[in-house]
Amino acid sequence: MTTKSKFLIGAIALIAACSGGDQPAATVNSSGDSAAVADTVYTNGRIYTVNEAQPWAEAMAVKNGRFLAVGSSADVEAVTSDTTEVVDLGGRFVLPGINDLHHHGIDVSTTAVNTDALTLTDEQKSTPESIATSVKEFAQSRPDLAVIYVEDFPDGMFEGNNGPKELLDEAEAERPVIILSSGGHAHWANSTALEQAGITADTSDPEYGIIGRKPGSNEPIGGVHESAMQLLLALREFPTRELVEAGIQHHVGRINGLGITAVRIGGINQVQLDATVAADKAGKLNAYHSLAFNWRTSYINQREGDFDLVREQILASRDVSTENVAGGVLKYYADGAPASKTAYLLEDYVDDPGNRSQFQMDEDLFREEMAFWTENGITAMTHVTGDAGARSFIDAVEAAQEQHGQNGVRHHMTHSVMVHPDDIARIPALGMVVDVSPAVAAPMSFHDAYKHFFGTERHETFFPARALVDAGVNFAIASDFPVGPDNPWSNIEVWTTRMNPQGEMEGALGGQSAITLEEALKAATLVGAYGLYMEDEFGSLEAGKRATFIVLNRNLFEIPPADLSETQVLQTYFNGRLVFDSNL
After folding, report:
1. In whole numbers, what is the pLDDT of the chain averaged over residues?
2. One-letter-per-residue 3-state SS of 98-136
3. What is this structure's pTM?
4. Most CB within 10 Å of its CB: which of 12, 321, 379, 508?
């Protein structure tokens, strides 16, 4: 691993860090202060900067948490004195920290540290029966709980994501059992939960929601989708501020270990915003956080049903002014999930003629609100899976800009599973940021259901990454963790190969949409920073930017693409501080 010492660099051998033999040009702090001396320098590295003007460097100098110089060993030597700490990278590969534009780590970690909820392991959720067994064991161990809450059952495990209530009744019949789907757009409930939520054969589907029914009857089957989830959410106790604070620390620690140094958290509330700001003020937030409030999603239930209050909280969040936390963002759902057949389509579901699903709210109201948010400088992070949903969102952004101009708001389309080529061509002029997530654009078992729903030809067009890049879209890749893994290297392998990173299934899904490694790294770093309005602070390794970078165990450009997922993070630096070390 790295070694540290204090000495003058002297004549450090030049490392051929760029792909050719030329010495890299330097980026040096433009202050013109010749007396500037680095606190720390990092030498002997293979440094990929994601700076098009200088893609590779040998060494970096840091002062007060920012890069003073990035370039050759000679450039760094010029800002080194006998008080400078020297870190020998040992030829290791260095990259900017990963910026994940769609993440739910605060919720996930809050649940993980919450002993009053059950988080299923991969083994526990491998089959419906193993889930039921795990629920039974947990329920028996916790007779004090009024509600058994569980995360999560895999999307596609049941047809239409409709888990049977009877299986959960066998596990626990006296108390409500509520299990969230991995995609977050469905609940699987037992009979007691349905009864206490008032969901019966006589209950009509709420607007923009679906209650799963048994074939040929109105009897609830156990699956509850989209806005109907609010009925079940009302049975839950929300986590306390103390629990949220513990969850934030758990979350930051785990993402630092993956090399993630900035996230946009999709779907938060005021308690989570306040706790995140407090963590930053206490010096405990070792990653930049953009926080997007839930707005008209399934997660604003009766307790948060005062939309006037939430609107004021969103507008007030623009004034959050800590170093590593930003508000001014909200989370919409344009449509639902492919697994539940609630993705909003331009053409019918193949297996269900006449059904294209629907937009998840009144479209006229959506356009009015998009104009309002745009005028007020609020970024709309909008969940889009179907091509009709994408078109409606793009239409609304376009209309808002016709009213208020391009006022610097970078609206954010997330997932982007299906986007019509005509609409892709419209995106660059709108200044939007578009991410593809989660990284399931590879052969996986649940895709058999998708082929049945959408047809093979349409299925092959899922996640049109190549077309988005070629069109000049501000294209990012994200995880949507926990819907997908947030291991950046596994995800980058998917987007560059469109193959299963575990090798569990052969072939590729939409191989024509694969992107290059350079494009994927830019999408995961610099464009991610752009989506966070922080491209002048991080996303590439350049003088003047925050010294936020990661050290890997391999050079990503020297390994087969199919091995990218095996990459390990050795160290993570945030704002010039070492926040993760694999040797510790």
Report:
1. 91
2. EEEEEECHHHHHHHHCCCCCEECCCCCCCCHHHHHHHHH
3. 0.86
4. 379
